[in-house]
Amino acid sequence: MIDPFEHWQEQAACAKPANRDKIELFFSNKKADQRAAKDICWTCPVMTQCIKSALENKHIEGVWGGLDSRQIRRTLSVNWDGQEIRRKRFPKCPSCDARTLDLITKTVERPNGGRWATMRVVECTDCGFEWQSRTSANAVDAYHAQRAERMIRAEKDIAKKRAASRRKKAASAKKSEPK
Ligand code: SF4
Ligand SMILES: [Zn+2]
């Protein structure tokens, strides 16, 4: 059986004869060149497979799957050397741009074994895209924990306000009672 993920490169828009002379755009530092490279990605039938491969193989230089190097490093939470760093911002889905609210984390088996039997992945509930990054997964978990805390605090505040208003009403009703 042909594995579509293995043969996706054959359909790459950047490998088409018409685009072969534009390959330097993909590795340029100029924003305009990167934009032109991304425009080619947006016509590419295998963009999702390309983003996935770039994230899994830490291609942190150049434009891959419509993302530039900065976006790829931010998604993976890695620095210029490819080392994992603590994220400053919550992640977005690299495939559809969905916000952290739509991202969940899960633990899955590592396909190639290795030192650990399992790995943490982030999944976008909006488009189904999934990527592997421990620090991104930690950031998503932290986001949901903070959000839950904020909601509990907001509910407590509402309950307090309601109780205060009930007390106020009861006090004023008592005052207006005929003596
Ligand atoms: S998404 Fe972009 S970089 Fe990836 S294969 Fe397609 S054109 Fe090339
Ligand atoms: Zn998505």
Q: How are the elements arranged and paired?
A:
Layout: H1 31-41, H2 47-56, H3 69-76, E1 103-109, E2 118-124, E3 130-132, H4 134-175
Antiparallel strand pairs: 1-2, 2-3
The structure holds iron/sulfur cluster (SF4) and zinc ion.
Features:
179 residues; 4 helices; 3 strands; disordered N terminus; binds iron/sulfur cluster; binds zinc ion
Q: Strand share of the residues?
A: 5-15%
Task: Name the poorly predicted regions.
Answer: 1-5
Number of strands: 3
**Whole-number radius of gyration?**
25 Å
Bound molecules: iron/sulfur cluster, zinc ion
Helix content: 25-40%
Can you write the helix and strand succession as a string?
HHHEEEH
**How confident overall, as mean pLDDT?**
90
Alpha-beta classification: mainly alpha
How far apart the termini lie comes to 91 Å
How does the overall form come out from the CA principal axes?
A: elongated
Largest sheet: 3 strands, antiparallel
In the sheet with the most strands, the strands line up as 1-2-3
Number of helices: 4
What's the quaternary structure here? single chain
